[in-house]
Amino acid sequence: MTRSPLLRFAPWFVLLIVVYSAGRWQGANSARVSTDTEPAATSAGTESSAPVEETPSNPAPDAPLEDRSAVLAREAEALAHAAKFMSVPDARTYAFFENLALEDLPAVTARIEGLAPGNEQDVLFIMAVRRWAELDGARAVQRADAFPSLGTRMNARLAAYEAWGAREPKAAFELACRTEEPEAKTAAVSAALTGAATLDPALALQLLVSAPSSVLDSDLGIQAASRIVSGAYGTGKGETMRELVATLPEGPHRDRMIQTMAAEWGAHYPDETLEWIERAAGPTDAREAAVNALFLSLVQKDPALAAAWGTDFPDDSRRTSYIAAAVQSWAKLDIAGAETWVNEQPSGPHLDGAGYAMAAHFMGRRDMPRSFSWIRRINTIEMRAELLGTLGRMWANQNPGEFRRFLDETSLNRAEIEMLLSKIEPAPAS
After folding, report:
1. Biggest CA pair distance of the chain
2. I want to staple 392 with a disulfide (CB 3.0 to 4.6 A). Which of 85, 130, 143, 423 is the partner?
3. pTM more than 0.85
4. Are 98 and 24 in contact (CB under 8 A)?
């Protein structure tokens, strides 16, 4: 299947948005760069060989329009020249665009469009369109759609909808929904919702659930939902978001939002999140998926806390698998800490999962004796047999002599020894 041009360029756009956001912060906290600024540093950290041009600051807003337009156009051209020697735009570039007024943008954008095609032109054009969207979203989308390069056109549209959504969520969302091409519509709506989430997460959620089903079911739609939830917590509106999600109409989209909420909130407040899931999802498949999402987010954030939380989980089979998953992740970060924790736990069948995780960890490190020491502590027959078979096959191939000596000294029962002996390849005929 031919990959959509939109999807080919989407990762590049996401990178630009991340870089742009970082640059805005940098520009807002840095003084305006003067004309005697030192040469820009390259991405490798060495001094650039780019010529240092004296570039005027943006002229006063009340300067004659023709003079102001000419100065801004020259400034844009100088920025494009300087961009050739930078891995990302610098603070001067961000400050230039942030200080542009609406009436400045036609001349500046036209000058950028007249530059030689290339990465510098693409980046500056997208920055200009984004600034345009902060002042007039509909015109910004129009200008983006007129750019000749397909990739830059797509990414500029997404930048426009994201910036517009952060200022006028409903207007940006409604125009994005009228996009004809299905994949372009999905990307535009998701970008508008991403922007809306930074302004009003509750409104962004209301817009999301009214979006076309093609958007809601897409990967970009799911990502937008995650950003909306993250935005709610970032702005102190988590409780409002939980109430809104709980009152959504029953269906797959509500279930997905519950999972998203569980993952976002559960990493910080697992007990409270579990209580909320019980109320919001009830005894359904959605509840099982939401609890799993909660636990996985907790494992990623703090596997030690996840292991402790898993030991108190009421469902026996889930408790065993949760402890195993937490210990497996913990062992990768701190094997001594994970091993100590497991050794301190009271014995019981729920610890078989932890033993399995530890045995698999040492087996992966080719420490077979230590792996076996954990296998022998497993009580579940099927689990123990599975690991013994894997260990025997790997150990026999890795070091047959050591494996035979191990079998001679082991305290395993006869059936297990015979099973392990079968893993040793017969000696070739002489």
Report:
1. 99
2. 423
3. no
4. yes
The one-letter amino acid code at 72 reads L
Find, among 186, 139, 195, 142, the residue nearest to 164 by Cα.
Answer: 195
CB 202 within 8 A of CB 237: yes
Compute how many other C-beta atoms are within 10 angstroms of the C-beta atom of residue 260: 22
- Residue 249, CA atoms < 13 Å, CB-side half-sphere: 5
Cα–Cα distance measured from residue 255 to residue 263, given in angstroms and rounded to the nearest whole number:
13
Please, which residues have CB within 8 angstroms of residue 231's CB and are 6 or more apart in sequence?
A: 197, 198, 201, 204
Q: Per-residue pLDDT tens, the chain, 430 aa: give them.
A: 433 333 334 443 433 443 344 444 344 443 333 333 333 333 334 444 444 444 445 655 555 555 777 888 788 888 877 777 676 788 888 999 999 999 999 999 998 998 888 888 899 999 999 999 999 999 999 999 999 999 999 999 999 999 999 999 999 999 999 999 989 999 999 999 989 988 888 888 888 888 888 887 788 877 788 778 777 766 667 777 888 888 777 878 788 888 888 888 888 888 888 888 988 887 778 889 999 999 999 999 999 999 999 888 888 878 889 999 999 999 999 999 999 999 998 877 788 889 999 999 999 888 888 888 898 888 888 888 888 888 888 888 888 888 888 777 776 777 777 776 666 554 444 4
Phi, psi of 41 (to 5 degrees): -85, 145
Question: 366's torsion region: left (phi>0), alpha (psi -120 to 50) or beta?
Answer: left
Percent of the chain as helix, strand, coil, to the nearest 5: 70, 0, 25
Kindly state the tokens that stand for 216.
Answer: 């809601």
Cα–Cα distance measured from residue 153 to residue 165, given in angstroms and rounded to the nearest whole number: 18
Instruction: Please enumerate in sequence order all residues whose Cβ is within 8 A of that of 225, keeping only pairs 6 or more positions apart, or say none.
Output: 208, 256, 257, 260
